[in-house]
Amino acid sequence: MEDKDEDKPGRNDMTLAAIMEQAEDDRPEPVISVHNLTKTYILGGKTSVPALRGISLDVYPGEFVAIMGPSGSGKSTFMNLLGCLDRPTSGEYWLAGNLVSSLSSDRLASIRNQLIGFVFQGFNLLGRATALRNVSLPMVYAGLSRRERDIRASKVLDLVGLGGRINHKPSELSGGQQQRVAIARALINGPALLLADEPTGNLDSHTSIEIMGILQALNEQGLTIVLVTHDANVAQYAKRQVAFLDGEIVRDEPVSSPRSAAEEWEKLNSEHGVVVEEETP
Length: 281
Prior knowledge:
The protein is of the alpha/beta class. It has 9 helices and 10 strands. 37% of the residues lie in helices and 24% in strands.
């Protein structure tokens, strides 16, 4: 006897809805979850300038998200809020399950040091300190011994390909090498989230490919990365793009075929007939 229920309209749709609901339930907790986030600046005590207008966004573990937009779009303001460097005017920001607005200043500083790694366009390295000292600096606040700091810093510098330059100062390193030191410093405390603000902005195109290759490799190992850029070419290395305009999200979509920095670097080497390496000034 035939099962007449199979002919009932909507059964397949209900099954699909149930599957989708189950998939949502199985998703891990977001690393970043913001709800109706706003930021308004007051100029001259009178003029209100809205920088963010009701941003809602979730970023899950292992994602590589590019925040895009022209100057004045709100992307840098959003990055500052994600990095706990500023506070929103309204809305909620949850970081790894912590409601940021409820944290004390000391707890916020601890969260920022332990959960977030920062990579900036300008490197922000200490000019008189070696690569090893620059990378080990965040661990000072964690109370680790100098020996332990040096061991861990050496391992992370080796991870980014600078194991042979741990005693070099920034002035003895090229721009790409300085950015690799900055990446190592961002990784040293094992963050849940890496925030990269225009990380290739001060680099030439070849070195930019190298840095994006490092970021892609780290993401493949499970690190969650949020990258801010105005460069659409750089954003193509990410797995998801979120476009800002006038303080609002105007586009949020996956990248179907991200660029592969490793493949581009290999092709670049092949075209030159030799392995392309950075020269130390």
